[in-house]
Write a structure and sequence with these properties.
- The chain contains eight helices and no strands.
- It has about 140 residues and is mainly alpha-helical.
- It is elongated, with a radius of gyration of 18 Å.
Amino acid sequence: LLDDPGPEAQRRRAGLLGVLCLAGRVAPCEDAVDILSSQGQAADADAAPLASHGCGLGGLHSCVLAGDLASAGRGMDRDRSLAVSSYARACTGDARSGCEGLRELCRQGYLSGCETLLRSRDDASRPEPTSGSPEASAGEPTR
C-alpha cells in the first residue's frame, strides 16, 4: 500500500493518514493533503477539511494548502476570509509561501490580504523584548 503509486492505493493511504490527522497529528494531515491534492479536483473535497484541521494543529504547510484550496474554491466554496486567515498563520510562522498567498490575494484586489500581509511584516520586523524592557515586564508583578 505504501509503495504502490496507483491512484486507488494512494487514496487509501490518504484515508489512513486522514485518520491520524483527525487524531491530532500534524504530519499525517500534510501528507494526506499532498496526496489528495495531486489527484485532481475530485479529491479536493476530501483534502480541504484535512488541510484546515492540520492548520489548526499548527502545520504551516497545511495552512498554505488550506489557503490555496479556499482561495481557489477547490473542494469548498471560495472563501477568501479563510484563505487570508490560513495564509496569515503560515506567514507569521515563517512559511514564505503563506506570505506569497497573501500577496497574491492583495494583487487580486482583496484588501484584507494586503492588510494582513502588512501586519505580519510589522510583527516579524519587531524585535523581541529583552528582559528588563517595558514590553518584557508588562504584566509582571512589581516588587
